[in-house]
Give the backbone structure.
Amino acid sequence: MRRRQHVASLFYQHVAPQLSDGSAWDDHRETDADLMIETVDNYAPNFRVRLARQIFSSLDLKKTFGLIGGDNFHGSLDLRQIFSAHPMLGHPDYRGPINL
């Protein structure tokens, strides 16, 4: 009988690209991933059983994909930059105020 296999992707974004104590993400990657998996396991028992994982810390995202500061959103957006104000207030259709 074939066993069912599943893929789960866990993502959390609000992590400082540089740690406040000056340590490197290379030293915290596994511990941080363990905390994330433990949190899911509290709500979905046995989640961690037979789990293979690939971890990308902010540092890994920077090194692997060239993301500045490891930010997969390429910088924070605020209310002045989203929805009808994107890319700038009054021009949500990407047409600028200059007629060509």
Summary: The longest helix spans residues 29-43.
